[in-house]
Protein 1
Amino acid sequence: MVKVRIEGERNMIESLKRVFGERFGSTEGAREFFAPGRVNLIGEHTDYNGGNVFPCALDFGTYAVARRREDRIVKLYSVNFEDLGVMEFSVDELINKREHDWANYPKGVLDIFRRSGYSIENGFEVVYGGNIPNGAGLSSSASIEVVTSVILKELFELENTMIDAVKMSQRAENEFIGVNCGIMDQFAIGMGRRNNAILLDCNTLEYTYSELKLEDEVVVIANTNKRRGLADSKYNERRGECERALEKLQEKIEIGALGELSIEEFESNKEVIGNETDTRRAKHAVYENQRTLKAVEALKNGDVEKFGKLMNESHVSLRDDYEVTGRELDTLVEAAWKHEGTVGSRMTGAGFGGCTVSIVRRDMVADFIERVGTEYREKTGLNADFYVANIGDGARELR
Ligand code: NG1
Ligand code: MG
């Protein structure tokens, strides 16, 4: 099955506006916002290791209609979670977190903004609606966080930059939600640019845009439709293993993050890590980081073939050394590798389920979707969803 665009941007906004009017009385003065989802092309599990990532923003994501209120009440509603109704609280209240509640994301952002000293004294009301599949590694959560940051900035005329908003959105995820994630998702969503991926050094936050000069190829995202059950606990486990490896290495060499190591430095010092598993985790982080730099260079030189090979190597490393793939992701990627239209294919996001990203020859996409989808279904009993990705701009107010 091919899901290209669930609904166009205008349709989405118009239907959210209708709901806004129903829920909050009128649409007078209501403003329109958008934050994309993101897909990472290469550089996986490197962000929290102080390494490089190469993500891009998608052209679908989270839409929102928002308006400032004269009192101090905040009202939040999501058309994706109709059963939960309108969440209502005051800006003065200590913001309580409830388990499994989507509104924790906007609440967390509001909390971090206020704790960062931004004066938000009035309430506001928002209707959210999104078309990113949840828990698929396309960053639906970061998209809600970043769109909320943009809403707060615009409604309250705050002076923060998009980079500040990105950092506060990540803090909301770390400190309020309790997921100790790196900065890749929020950064790509806030700073994305049409037809470009972003090479981001997560240690220094230096970044450069790199145009995706794909003429004969397209980016295809495939959702395994396997939800990432244990992702969060395994995610934190991997972070722990990498931290342990780093501490050992620091006994011998002066480094602040695994991302600072060259392959040679890693190979000549790795015996101090001691533990075999931790060594493999660190190896992935170091090699993946270097692989990302090579891949970006290849793309700059118009060598898409080489970029694709490096994507394949990334998957192997995530499968064998980092051990974050699983049967569904491996089956989908192996089916893609067999197809003659495939330039490269790998898992994307945290892993354990969720999506793969592939570069596929444009004239073979239909056959790719048909054959890869069929093989995946035969081997796993699951249906994959395919999206031909358009690389879009970052979060913004729509005017
Ligand atoms: P996804 O799969 O989008 O949740 C997670 C982290 C990223 C990064 C990747 C692995 C969150 C919100 N994000 O992405 O920071 O570490 O895994 O590269 O957990
Ligand atoms: Mg998430």
Protein 2
Amino acid sequence: LVLIVDFGSQVTQLIARRVREAGVYCEIHPFSKAEDAFARLAPKAVIFSGGPASVPEAGSPRAPQAIIDAGVPILAICYGQQTLCQQLGGRVEGGHAAEFGRADVEVLATNALFEGVWETGRHYPVWMSHGDRVTRLPDGFRVYAVSDNAPYAVAADEARRYYTTMFHPEVVHTPDGARLIANFLHKVAGIAGDWTMAAFRAEEVSRIRAQVGKARVICGLSGGVDSAVAAVLIHEAIGDQLTCVFVDHGLMRQGEADEVVGLFRGHFNIPLVHIDAADEFLSALAGLDDPEAKRKTIGRLFIDAFEAEARRIASDGRGPVEFLAQGTLYPDVIESVSFTGGPSVTIKSHHNVGGLPERMRMRLVEPLRELFKDEVRVLGRELGLPEAFVGRHPFPGPGLAIRCPGGVTREKMDILRQADAIYLDEIRKAGLYDRIWQAFAVLLPVRTVGVMGDGRTYDSVVALRAVTSVDGMTADFYPYDMAFLARTATRIVNEVKGVNRVVYDVTSKPPGTIEWE
Ligand code: XMP
């Protein structure tokens, strides 16, 4: 087992995921509780995450000294590197140019971390994200890699098995990062890798049974992969104690409601209740334009709909519905709340996490809470979901409402739905659907002047978004060729009444997010 000490980085769970990929079981614990966890779990290796705090500032988090002194191998990343070096007698300073994004490191010497991956004298791309830096290494440390702005990109004390990186090896934008982490686990710490998704399925089924007991559960299906996988997994665990509910909020894409209901009832043969709640959602959203207010309103209405359905189900006299199941994923958790009690910052209230009203009476079952999107896809295949369904692009719970900055109206949803359908149609025709992680149209609250035929137009702008990603935590915009964009823009302007201009979003994440709200 590996202990990950969390200093509140947005990407701590990516470390866990890289460790799982290497076939090793791990647990994340916040720095404030790490000493207890360490004593209880007796891990064979420890990883310190990054974090948003600044080591030179008074009161910033420190790693438990007992862990540092225990003699187990430690991999310390970014903030973890800084606090470890400071605690071992080195020095950390702020005030340097902050560095975000890609950097190239040069390898100066080899060590166990680099074995079979990095060679001396060569350059490799990595992902940096930091303000402070270590300016003096502790005794016994040596530099193994440098970059222009990072004199200690990799520094280690091989004798004491302390390995530190200034960059983030856990993100996919550090292409060799997973192999460096695997080397730390297998070569430095000597841990074998035999953990699998089949093991996860079996563990989750017994965890769900233990959590739920004889109680009844309803599961909100959104039409996306996550809630479907959650539903099938929970059904495997508790059978007809589960009822699935599909709330159509009028913020779905074209044809989606029919597809979801048909596919779910047909393929899975799990009972499904279909609720048409478009009027309630659209009237509650009228006049709201703050993104968080929109998200929270949608979250509240979902819960109202689920609670009403729970009461209806319970009226058969076979007992109350005590649990609400959701397909919440890790990125939803980390970007919504500081779940560790550590210092990570709220980016958005995802409706199925931070958007839940406090007064909700049902308890939550969230079997995918530890997983990332692509891990959910692996689990979906493991559970026998059809490939076409497993490969669907993600679709957010709040639906098209968060792709329409400003107020939402039925008319705007209609325009957006049409533009989005044309865009996805062109993507499919070009054979690009599976190469893109997620693609959608956004309807901007901006009108611009155009000319069509001999007339002046004054209509809306549609922005197109397409990204590649592995887990939704970081993403790059998709580099279409211009002919594709031109073809799609022409179709949208010609076929969708009310739109006279199309733009393409070329922002990566970070600094953008994938959705616009
Ligand atoms: P962002 O915009 O935060 O999105 O970069 C990352 C991924 O999460 C999806 N997303 C959501 N999924 N409920 C969901 O189920 C939500 O409230 C929500 N908000 C964003 C988004 O579509 C992308 O795949």
